[in-house]
């Protein structure tokens, strides 16, 4: 694929929205958030969208630590 795809979802708090960009390339899903941080994971049993959502949530958790 190789193109950036905008992603966003709401977490447990309906007022909080998470957003970023997802890229699928060479068997990896990479998510980049607006402040430039990114995280990648190898595609496996989950859909790329599910993996991207988990990575995005992980990046947001790291930000708040």
Q: What's the total count of β strands?
A: 4
3D shape: globular
Rg from Cα: 11 Å
Q: How large is the count of helical segments?
A: 1
Strand content: 35-45%
Helical/strand content category: alpha+beta
Overall mean confidence score, pLDDT: 89
Q: List the strand order in the largest sheet.
A: 1-2-3-4
SSE string, helices as H and strands as E:
EEEEH
How far apart the termini lie comes to 33 Å
Give the proportion of residues in helices. 25-40%
Outline the biggest β-sheet.
4 strands, antiparallel
- Enumerate the spans where pLDDT stays under 50 for 5 or more consecutive residues: none
Explained architecture:
The chain has 65 residues and is an alpha+beta fold. It has a domain at 5-49. 26% of the residues lie in helices and 38% in strands. The chain has 1 helix and 4 strands. The protein has one helix spanning 48-64; strands at residues 5-10, 17-25, 28-32, 38-42. A 4-stranded antiparallel β-sheet has the order 1-2-3-4, with helices on one face. The chain is globular and about 35 Å long. The N and C termini lie far apart (33 Å).
């Amino acid at each position: 694929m190789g193109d950036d795809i905008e992603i966003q979802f709401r977490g447990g708090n309906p007022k909080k929205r998470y957003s970023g960009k997802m890229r699928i390339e060479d068997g990896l899903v990479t998510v980049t958030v607006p402040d430039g941080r990114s995280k990648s994971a190898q595609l496996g049993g989950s859909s790329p969208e599910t993996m991207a959502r988990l990575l995005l949530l992980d990046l947001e958790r790291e930000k708040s630590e």
